[in-house]
Amino acid sequence: xxxxxxxxxxxxxxxxxxxxxxxxxxxxxxxxxxxxxxxxxxxxxxxxxxxxxxxxxxxxxxxxxxxx
Amino acid sequence: xxxxxxxxxxxxxxxxxxxxxxxxxxxxxxxxxxxxxxxxxxxxxxxxxxxxxxxxxxxxxxxxxxxxxxxxxxxxxxxxxxxxxxxxxxxxxxxxxxxxxxxxxxxxxxxxxxxxxxxxxxxxxxxxxxxxxxxxxxxxxxxxxxxxxxxxxxxxx
Lengths: 68, 157
Prior knowledge:
The complex is a heterodimer. By secondary structure, chain A is mostly helical. Chain A has helices at 5-12, 16-23, 27-34, 42-52, 56-59; strands at residues 2-3, 60-61. By secondary structure, chain B is α+β, with helices and mostly antiparallel strands. Chain B contains four helices and two strands; from the N terminus they run H-E-E-H-H-H. In chain B, 14% of the residues are buried.
């Protein structure tokens, strides 16, 4: 799954640490998601969408490999 | 979501402070077979199989036993649990995922090692394997989990 967390974060001009605090997770988790190493839970994905004020599908996109 | 089987973060420190001394003392009394007589007590036993030539099996009796190894064994297990299953300072869903993956890894690793010892360690030496194997699954978990967390913190510097 691809995500545009880094882009959304740049638009809002906030750091990983600030986003982590808003989303109530560790900074490592934000970093791991931006690197595509971790797929967040639905709850965390919804929190991020709410923080950025966008639809969840604007942040997260399925890839072909997600159907394997 | 809220039920995660974890202790609060501060218990981790308590765990380490108990685990290290009790593991060292436990190892020493195992090696030197130290049994101080003031810890000899009559204790209730469900099953006793005395190491004698008459194969004296008893059930539901009182037996005289030195309780030092019981005390240390329990202390080691409880403190290992505190170290293994106390929350990280920033426990979140990703840390929990790493935690449970490490636990699965540790179970595989522990039993792989046990199979190797089945094949290559025999007779009385195997008793030592069994003694250590009581504690190793959690110890392997602690090492694996902390290594993964260390790596995670390093890549996200």
